[in-house]
## 1
Amino acid sequence: MDFKIMNKLMKISCQILFIALILVSFSCGGKDVKKASEESRLAQEAFRLAETLKNAYEQNDRSTLEENSTKEGYRELIVAIKKFDRADLAFTPTWLEIKDPAVFLTISWKGTWTVKGKATEERGLAIFVFEGKPLQLARIQRENPFKQPE
């Protein structure tokens, strides 16, 4: 074969390959975004709510605690909360179970409370039971992280 013919064939092949690559990249770049499942949405909402409750407790923000709890849940929280100068909680979600109409979020927690200059540390495992739309804290099972150790 002649060198000029081979050179033209190479250029044409490169152009065809380039066009094919462009077409493939556009065909794969669709805007189909998979929507989150209802379970995923509930899990994310439960994680955010647990963090909101933790922050409100640390800041002694009872109005936020009340807004994010059912009447019974808030009553349970208020009875458990003792006075403290400072509280630092760390939550690690370990399990989430959805049993309609409730969401059960298991949290491993660790806390440090300071009262009159004396620090107390505790750790435990709590199950937050959330209900409603939007989710609200209905009750806490097992070891309540919002109950300052005595």
## 2
Amino acid sequence: MTGIIHSVEGVWDAALSGVRQAVERVVAGVRHRHDQEEQVVRYTQASGERFRIEPAEVPQVLADLRTALDRVRRIRSEAQAIAYTPAPGSDEVSRNAVRQIGEMAMGSGGSLKAALDAYELEITKTIAKLERDLQTYLGTEELNVPPASAWP
């Protein structure tokens, strides 16, 4: 009987240790993603006026940014599907794992959703700024070109 109890305790201890390690990996992953998200925000805010795009390149850059925006939105949709996936079992470990994965995907701080929101915001702002700048440039060029009647 004592052997069975020790065997069960050993299995239980191994299971708890495995769950504890899994939770620690999840927490480390969340911290890492949170750090990456903060770094992206810092880089995008600091990039401000650091790059230059030639006017002829703006339409392609806008198309590329819109493609990136679509991809961000698709990834968000996939994250939502992951976040709302039902637990594979009715035990506490399964329910807890699904809850933690859902929090990593769609939680408020340090989640994939938070990072995607930051990307979407910055991409949207960049698209709007490029469109305004292109309109200003085109308007200025139109003013600087004399009408055909003024040409010899």
